[in-house]
# Entry
Amino acid sequence: MLDIRWPIGLMFALVGAILIVYGLITGSDAGLYHRSLDININLVWGVVLVVFGGLMLLFAWRGQKTAAPK
Amino acid sequence: MQLVNLHVLDYIILAIYVVFVLGIGFALKRYMKTSSDFFMSGRSIPTWVTGLAFISANLGALELVGMAASGAKYGIATAHFYWVGAIPAMVFLAVFMMPFYYGSKARSVPEYLKMRFDERVRCLNSISFAVMTLFASGVSMNALAKLLHQLLGWDYNVSLWITSAVVLVYVLKGGLTSAIYTEVLQFFMIVLGFAPVVYLGLKDVGGWDKLTATLGQVAQHPMAVDLNTKAFQTNAWTSAWQPLLAGPTSNPMGVDIFAMVFGLGFVLSFGYWCTNFLVVQRAMAARNMGAARRTPLIAAVPKMILPVLVILPGMLAAALAFTAKDGYRLPPLPIKNIPAAVQAVKTAPADPVAALAAIKQTVGLKMNDAKLTALVAASKTLTDEQIKTRVQDAVADNDYDGVILSLVKKYCPPGMLGLALTALLASFMSGMAGNVTAFNAVWTYDLYQAYIAKNKSDEHYMWMGRAVTIAGILLSIVCAYLVSHWSNAMDIIQLVFGFVNAPLFATFLLGMFWKRATGTGAFLGLLGGTLTSALFHALTSAAGNVPGIKGGYLTVLQVFPSDMAQNFWLASFAFMACFLLTAGISLATARTKTDEELKGLVYSLTPKLKAEEGPWILRPAVLGVILLAGCVVLNWMFF
# Structure
């Protein structure tokens, strides 16, 4: 059976990466981030999503390794 | 609601989500070999996945929207729907009821009723459940299509059909497993999509202490933001139990302690969490008995902390609106006929009093006099577009269901906005998928196989499951249109849900723990309980309501301080009626099932479960006690 951690990990890593790139491009645009209390929330939260997605992928990979010998 | 302009990035995030859920459906297709795979996931899903799906099936978009609304209206007492109205029932399901559901090899909740009682009880339960799931799914899709229309300007019909088509494809391909997997995905989407909004909101208000201080002022002057018509003690929005203990006139919910603890905490909560196949189906898909019992317990952990994500935003909105931070206000109810309203402003009579009266007549909502007067005075120099914005802003009635979106719009730049909106969209779609998978299992096993086509091949039932998935989605769409075109439909549906659900737990309680309960007793008790609900509703009313659809259409014997109090008391009465009728009729009728037949279905006749695998700390009873202790601590912290 498909391990749900693969799609979850991939999706959040991908979305997180996109947010990071967008956050870096628009980082100098103070007007854009005024609404998020002058925090570059795309960059910050993109990093959180990439870390979360990466952990999910790591668990999925480890799960696959332990399941494989059977 | 004002339109939001989505950035292309937001659309990309939305598209990524849709591609992933469809991909999950296609990836699961090759595992769907038997009807058991399709309807029950072959009982092979890991526990943490069933646990999160269990909670997620309940965490629909309507829950998100509704809890934020209640957070603004009632403050922290809304958490009772979690700490009183969910956790104890989830622990009870895991420790006491799951052994019978899972151990009996029943494939659905109605099928358990057939094994325990007889066909009549199963038939009654499966038909009412099937109808309710279709309506629930229709209500969810209607809300989604309406939201996409109001927020993004998409066409209602296109939104409804496209989102339904996405759900159709992935449920058709992957069955229950698809629904469960996307529910888990949706759970993380909601947590990760809304957490930054809550964080920014809390930071903006000035932290928790500032929030409680501001809400203290809100409680004393709720009229200032049209939250309530009378003043309360300062702790009414920030303390969960004290205003409740002080009586129904001292808390904004208008509920007394008995209705809260017995009505919500026992009858409604146990009736929902322990008997609703939509959630129980998730636990039934677990690998083994231990996993099935741990499913609701795992679900209880996020359930305990979810108020931070779903109720806190409402409280933040109330505080932000009270201080009018950066011009924030609670979103006003949308004016139905905006061109007519604009016209009314432009053609308003010269006399100010007559002008206000004429505009209010056209709009049909409560209006802010000062804002309206200013608008009329300035109307000559404004464009139609400006008048439109200002007349909408002059509406004083709050649109509580728009609270969560108003915060998303306030704090999210492009990118984050896409993530938060996708989370909301995801929860609407998985709401539909969850209901449709519960519906197709009950239809195929409890109605089609039981009464229409017995003893067919497994392929036949698998085919039926797929066919009924399509039918179920089409019927949901019909229900969505019904709800959208006939505004009373929503009220009536919720009413009937209440009538049917309220007595249900009495039937299960007696069935599982009293071997003397008979089929006739259960059947008549259930009918009697439902009729009691209907009668109770026809004879009582809530303060501020005119007799009619909201109750009291026969005559008004009792007026409750609020709709919520009426609802909780109704449930209490229906439960008692069902309990007493089932017990009484059972004693008067002969048993039709022997002790041997009831083995595995009734507590006293079932051998105690053997010591389970794994360390003692993971035993359901131990975990249950830990969870209840955690729940007590939370209640005490916010006492």
